Amino acid sequence: MLTCPDAQDLLSARMDGELAPPRREEVERHLASCADCRAVEAELRELDHLLQAPAALPPAADLAPRVCAAVFPPPARVIPLPRRAPPVRRPLWRAAAAAALLACASGALALLVRPRGPAPAAAAPRPAAPRLDARTAALRAELARVSRELDAIHRDLSAFHARAAAEARQADHAVASRSLEVTK
Fold this sequence. Notes:
mainly alpha
């Protein structure tokens, strides 16, 4: 036997014809014995009827303009931006400094790594050699890192220089076109 909450949960499905016959019959038996559930069903039927009925009132005449005004507000006052100054051409001193730093680092590494003369043939291996090899490897790794950083700086400077040159050409073109417009 169904309880009232269970039957009320199934009323909408019964009205829409979505219940299987055994379940529908069970709901109908409950409705025959329960006045409260019949009242809930009557309210649901009335609500369903109201929702399916056409709207009695036509929409207001100014509805469309009001909706458009709410969705697409009028544009705000446009404030012109100040004219952008042409880009400043910067010297390539950074590239020169990077090249000088790379040359100094290469020279220092060459001085530290080069052999100091012929190795004695009969001399016993010195215990400091593994530390020297480790230091050499560390210096080579540092040189490689510095070289990569300098290459990155050089690429950035080249890209910056290219952008600055392009912006300068655009600014020159804009000035020239404005002067042509003024003279016409």
